[in-house]
Write a structure and sequence with these properties.
The complex is a heterodimer of chains A (453) and B (138). By secondary structure, chain A is α/β, with parallel strands linked by helices. Chain A is built from 17 helices and ten strands. Chain A folds into two domains: 93 residues, no CATH class; 354 residues, Rossmann fold. Helix content of chain A is 45%, strand content 15%. In chain A, α1 runs antiparallel to α3, α3 runs antiparallel to α4 and α6 runs parallel beside α17. The N and C termini of chain B lie close together (9 Å). Chain B has four helices and no strands. Chain B has one domain. Classes of the chains: A alpha/beta (453), B mainly alpha (138). Chains A and B meet through α3 and α8 of A and α2 and α3 of B.
């Protein structure tokens, strides 16, 4: 064997083992949720969905490596055994992870809406529903296009003095004159980054729902930024601006605290909706709110429509039929440990940073209650469908469990919590991933059941 | 050796048949025939691993030093592995393109299937060519 061939062989062998090591890391991450700090948290966001491809990918690597080991057959066992462990761990979200949410979801829907709730939904709407919670073929074949009209970048709020303009994308059914049941879709991004529509805020899901006969408003809101803070020699705002640029948005002129964000979404946008209902074919007596992560928290804040935020919400004009938050924070008191996060320590004084970001002191109970949805639950709280990944390290699943418990104790309307095993934050971002498919299956049923069942 | 040649003959014909069927079954749903999705999925997985079976047999029994057929069959096996990696990579990227960028994937998916299953058919065809060539076998 020539020297070049030998070098190439060993290079490929090392590369193969590195790929298998990466597979072992992601596999363990899927099982245990957290390994090695913030990096794993980020990997855990999207990787469980991509890991579904591992049953196809790793066998190829195993085959190549056994071949590269040549006639040393005993050595074949190393990549084969190693690879089988990697494939087994990585295929957990696909094989084991799809069963629990389906069994759980079916049981809860039957309990809340009745075993025959599907019979009460009109056939015309039902015919557009997904036939099964999870379709394996769709996982590998992403191609469907959903019939609807989309108008991008419609402004709804201009903030005087600062000249910041906030816009929304409008998804409307192609057929029918309306008014249509309405969905407000709020993007995530930790209250500091994020944007409506492409590429971030599940545009395919918005199209899918518009195709089913809903008008969807995918909205922007003001985000917090930190003009006076630095990491080393880099201004924090420069980094945030760069990330925002990737998401197709500029930093706003003013930094908006979480409290101001709540006011924008619950106050400004809902008032815009009331004023322009006929133009946008909005059925004000049938409004749903959905959002993920920070958007999930803002969605949950609508629980306070009749108490905490009664003064800003157009209570007389809008009826909230349901809330669908994905992995949102419901109680900030439980997240105070974040103040000790070494990453925050790098930026500056964590308490000051939190104050600037949230618009108040989180250690102050009355302020905490003001922005923690769990404290707002009363008998008027709208029906809610909570969706959360069990391995979520950014917003632990206990947050949704706590909110469900508060509903069970205080609300008259139901709360359904579907937990997705082996997946973390943003498990639904890939439209046809197991998490994406199963969550959409229950969302469409929740939307219909709260109207008809 | 005679037994393995018989086995390879049948195996190659089955691979050609299954690859052709998988290609058709996986393309038809794009044209609106959604009822065969499940069969298409099953065929996709069976064919994917069946082709690997053929690659393993080629590595084990085909003789590279036969310059006429053996070498080409072995090269084709490696090409199949390379194409599989590219196809799987594409299948992995496609949902990201679809979910985040709203790119219609149909033409790319069809091309990926044609290449993946097409090379599977080609690989089996090379094996059939080797059957009558004694030098092509170890």
């Amino acid at each position: 064997m020539s020297l070049i061939k030998k070098i190439l062989k060993y290079f490929l062998l090392i590369l193969g083992y590195l790929i298998l090591l990466w597979g072992l890391y992601t596999g363990l991450l899927i099982v245990f949720g957290k390994l090695f700090t913030i990096f794993s948290t980020l990997v855990n966001c999207l990787f469980p969905a991509l890991a579904c491809y591992s049953i196809l990918f790793y066998p190829i690597i195993i085959l190549i490596m056994t071949r590269l080991h040549g006639k040393k057959r005993k050595l074949w066992l190393v990549p084969i055994c190693f690879g089988l462990v990697v494939v087994s761990l990585n295929s957990l979200p696909l094989i084991a992870g799809t069963q629990k949410p389906i069994i759980d979801g079916n049981a809860q829907f039957a309990q809340v809406f009745g075993a025959n709730y599907m019979d009460k939904i009109p056939q015309e709407l039902k015919s557009k529903f997904m036939k099964t919670p999870f379709d394996f073929w769709k996982l590998y074949n992403n191609y469907e296009s959903f019939d609807c009209n989309v108008t991008y970048d419609i402004p709804y709020l201009k903030v005087p003095i600062y000249n910041d303009v906030f816009k929304f994308d409008y998804y409307c059914p192609k057929h029918g004159t309306g008014p249509f049941p309405t969905i407000i879709n709020i993007h995530g991004g930790g209250w500091i980054i994020g944007n409506k529509g492409f590429p971030e805020n599940r545009p395919q899901a918005s199209k899918y729902l518009a195709h089913q006969g809903y008008v969807v408003f995918d909205i922007q809101y003001g985000l917090a930024h930190f003009p006076n803070m630095t990491i080393g020699n880099t201004k924090l705002d420069d980094t945030l601006g760069w990330v925002q640029g990737l998401l197709g948005r500029q930093l706003t002129n003013k930094s908006y605290s979480v409290l101001e964000q709540i006011h924008q979404v619950l106050g400004n946008f809902t008032h815009f909706l009331v004023s322009n209902a006929s133009q946008y074919k909005v059925n004000l007596s049938c409004v749903y709110i959905t959002g993920n992560s920070a958007g999930g928290h803002l969605t949950e804040c609508f629980i306070g429509w009749n108490n905490t935020y009664r003064s800003i919400f157009p209570t007389e004009n809008i009826t909230i039929k349901g809330l669908i938050p994905f992995y949102g924070v419901s109680n900030f008191a439980d997240l105070m440990y974040m103040i000790n996060d070494p990453l925050l320590g790098l930026i500056g004084n964590p308490i000051e940073l939190m104050k600037e970001m949230f618009g108040g002191d989180l250690s102050n109970t009355s302020f905490n209650n003001l922005i923690s949805p769990v404290t707002m639950v009363d008998s008027n709280a709208p029906p809610i469908l909570l969706l959360h990944g069990e391995n979520d390290e950014l917003v632990p699943v206990e947050q949704s469990r706590e909110l469900k418990d508060a509903y069970d104790a205080n609300a008259t309307n139901p709360a359904i919590l579907i937990e997705f095993p082996f997946v973390g934050h943003a498990f639904d971002y890939i439209f046809n991933s197991p998490g994406g498919q199963i969550s959409l299956y229950y969302i469409e049923r929740f939307l219909a059941a709260t109207r008809y069942a | 050796m005679v037994e393995i040649k018989y086995f390879m003959t049948y195996y190659s014909y089955i691979v050609i048949l299954f690859n052709s069927a998988a290609l058709v079954l996986n393309i038809l749903p794009f044209m609106g025939i959604l009822i065969i999705e499940y069969i298409a999925t099953i065929f996709f997985l069976i064919v994917f691993f069946k082709n690997f079976g053929l690659v393993i047999l080629n590595f084990r029994y085909i003789n590279r030093s036969d310059h006429s057929y053996g070498r080409w069959t072995k090269n084709m096996s490696w090409i199949y592995i390379l194409v599989s990696i590219i196809s799987i990579f594409f299948l992995c990227i496609a949902p990201l393109m679809y979910s985040f960028l709203n790119i219609n994937n149909v033409p790319y998916l069809i091309i990926a299937y044609i290449i993946l299953f097409g090379i599977g058919i080609l690989l089996a065809a090379f094996d059939l060519k080797c059957i009558g060539q004694p030098k092509a076998w170890k």
